[in-house]
Structures are given as C-alpha cells and as structure tokens.
Write a structure and sequence with these properties.
This protein has 303 residues and is mostly helical. The chain contains 13 helices and 7 strands.
C-alpha cells in the first residue's frame, strides 16, 4: 500500500474531528504530505525518509508552524501503521521534530524588508508587498485580483492558489463562499495598480503562470525566486528568515502601532485568536505596564 492510500483510510477513521480540523488536515495532506510522500510504499519508510521530508519542507519555504503541523500528522499516521505491525521498528525513532517556538519567528526590520523585496523580480515584489502590507498568505497573494479592491483602503481576500492542484480554491479554514476583508495601505494599493498597468490582467487576476497565461501563478515560482535571492547573498536577510516572515512583519507592524490583537487575528485569517496570541504575544512586552498606567488614572487609593 502506498502512503496516500493508507493516509486516506486513516483519515476516514478520524471521526472526532470538527469541520475546521478536517479542513486543516485535508490541507496539510494535499499541500505537503501527498506531494512529497503520496506515492511512496508504506514498507519503505524509515527515519531517513522522515528526515528528508522535513528538509524538503524547509527547502520549499514552509514556515516552522506548518512544518510542525505537517510532521504531527505524518507522525500520527506512521504510529498508527506501527501499531498494526507494518513496521518492525518505528520510522520515527531518532527523528527530531521541527521545533516550533513562537518566539523564534524571524521578522525583518523595515530596512531589511525594503532591500529584500527590491532584490526580487516584479512578481516577488507584488507578493511580498501583499504579505507584509496586508497580511496575506503567499497562496492568497498569488490569487490577487483587482476586483477584490472593494474600497480605496480595503482588500477582500476570497481565494487562494492551491499548491497541490495549481488551481484557485477556497481560503484556508473557510467555506467556498466565505472571505475576509483586510486593510489595504495606500503604498500597497499603488503597487497593485502599478503591476496591473505594466502587465495587464486576466479576468482581474494579476499573476499568471510564467509558461501558460491561462493558468494561475504556481507556488514554486515564488519559492525559486526566494532561494535565488538567498543564494546570491547580496542583501541583509536575518538568519532563519523564511517566506512566511513577510506575514510576520504585518502582524508585528500592526501590534507596534497599537492595533488590537483581535483585529490582527481576524485580518490574518487565524482559526482562533489563541493562534495569534501564541505567535505574537511576545511582540507586546509593554502591554501590562501600559495597562497599569492607564488603570491608575481612575483609581483612588485609600489614605
């Protein structure tokens, strides 16, 4: 049996999962596990295969949170196979899981952000501007559409480019008809309008497949551009920075300007504010001290 067949059978037995968790599991399988492991026979798994899977996710630019989630699902599937006797020894033995620590989220400075975005091509600049300025995921930025500018300062995120199918798909954790509205800073709107004027659009879409304009923009084009920028070593890139760090910049910029974390969570499309809080709580180190000063104004101490 191949991994994809076993995983689909295993997934059918996860009856305790809620709808959102099922969608999250399906996304991890389709976007990360199946492309790299789907055709592999179950009997060939060992610790080297699992290590190579983790390294492949790193090369593809997956953030540490995604790496950790994908590894957890792979671990659950392989442990299930081990329990029923498919392996004499666990293929997970000795494997170090991706260490996701929210405080390790690498965020570029404004100066670094500007030099990094300028080092890429026009497609790279457009996507990274949408990630750092509007909080879009890279797959959402790849589906940028002029028709989604619903106001001068509002962009409506309604779809993404699925990394597995290469086609437009519903947003992560959302039903097909659902969307979220995010702030559209004037600088980012000008980037979008500049790109549209320079390259034109197809049904409102700005980014298309480099070899076939009838198809959506492929995720590997962005990953390849990011790898070339890092290899050239001509710009100051913080150690450990990944593509997702552009989205981290958006969150840190919001919180630094005093925007409530509840709004940030909604704009970033997190399933729960707990996710936002765990990742970005450390970016608000002065919140307790600030609260103490504000609360003190209306308190009268007994003498």
């Amino acid at each position: 049996m191949r991994f994809k067949e076993y995983a689909i059978e295993w997934k059918s037995g996860q009856r305790d999962l809620g709808p959102a968790s099922v969608r999250h599991l399906e996304s991890l399988l389709q976007q990360h596990l199946f492309p790299l492991l789907g055709s592999r026979r179950m009997s060939t798994f060992d610790h080297k295969v699992v290590e190579n899977f983790i390294q492949a996710m790193e090369r593809n630019g997956a953030g540490l949170a995604t790496q950790s989630n994908a590894f957890d699902k792979l671990k659950a599937i392989l442990l299930d196979a081990h329990r029923i006797g498919l392996f004499d020894e666990s293929p997970l033995a000795g494997v170090k899981a991706p260490l996701y620590d929210p405080k390790r989220a690498v965020i570029p400075s404004p100066r670094q952000l500007q030099t990094i975005r300028a080092a890429g091509n026009d497609q790279f600049r457009l996507i990274t501007d949408l990630m750092s300025g509007c909080g879009l995921r890279n797959a959402e930025a790849a589906a940028v559409n002029l028709r989604n500018i619903v106001a001068d300062d509002v962009y409506r995120v309604s779809e993404q480019v699925n990394q597995t199918t290469g086609q437009y798909a519903p947003l992560k954790h959302r039903k097909p008809s659902e969307y979220r509205d995010v702030p559209l800073p004037s600088v980012i709107r000008k980037t979008v309008e500049w790109y549209a004027e320079k390259y034109g659009t197809t049904d409102g879409y700005l980014l298309r497949h480099p070899n076939d304009p009838s198809r959506p923009f492929p995720h590997y084009s962005l990953s390849n551009q990011w790898r070339r920028i890092k290899v050239r070593e001509r710009v100051d890139i913080p150690p450990g920075m990944v593509l997702y760090s552009f989205r981290h910049f958006f969150a840190s910029n919001c919180l630094a300007q005093g925007i409530p974390i509840t709004d940030v969570a909604e704009w970033m499309g997190h399933r729960s504010i707990d996710v936002t809080f765990k990742i970005y709580r450390h970016l608000m180190p002065g919140s307790i001290s600030s609260a103490a000063q504000v609360l003190n104004q209306n308190l009268v101490l007994a003498t």
